[in-house]
Amino acid sequence: DEMVLCKGKKRYTYYFQNVIMNDVKKVEFCRNGGVYLITGGLGGLGMLMAKEIASQIETGTILMTGRSVCEQEQKEKVDLLRRDGITVQYMQTDISKREDTLDLAERIKREYGKLDGIIHCAGVVKDNWLSRKTLEELRTVLKPKVTGLYNLDKAFQKFNLDFVIVMSSTASLKGNMGQSDYAAANGFMDFFAAHWNRLASCGERIGKMYSVNWPLWRDGGMQISDEAEKMIYESTGMVPLETEAAFHSLYQAAGQNIYQFAVLQGKPEKISQWMNPNQ
Length: 279
Fold this sequence. Notes:
The chain is of the alpha/beta class. It contains 9 helices and 9 strands.
């Protein structure tokens, strides 16, 4: 579970640095009148992000996309986000298909005239041992995060974006059993964010891209047993991330101009030892 780069005769490994962000500048991403796109919007994290945006602004538009039809239960959740001044719309779109993503961009430009921010939550897991993993499983996991992010870049790179947030995972930093493809997909997003920000510094992209290596959220779409939660705590020191702590840390990191970071909650000393076992 250690990332290694061999260059010439030298061997490089990651070192994770703890960042203390008490009482630092806090940046909230959204503003009144803004138009915001959430991919994977009907998933657990997508819904939490939509709810957070709706709580930040008095007027604006939240556009949620996904491959599937919006079922009645999901429609009811979407309806709860709406209020005077807040428009919420679900657009069924497969962002792993380039033409669909280009069509989405054209529709947003035609109907709203702009897009201010993107939150890329789309993702799929197909846990399996590497020796048993099929090519179809691999493609299914890579498509939303790798092909999807590439397509979003092509479709929206000319929009005047304030930000793009890609929902990465601690799996890309430390790996996870049965998730080699998921770790690779999230790792692509981490490095793509760095690539985007280099292009932005040269005027070839607009806005900042943040890649956040999230752990398991307590209120997210993925739930685990009490026994599994206990095992994670014993091995890593982490507990499932609380929603309030997640957003607070996100805004603080943005205020520090940190473009890739993990938000981990639990016992600090044990988490540090897990992240940097050789230190």
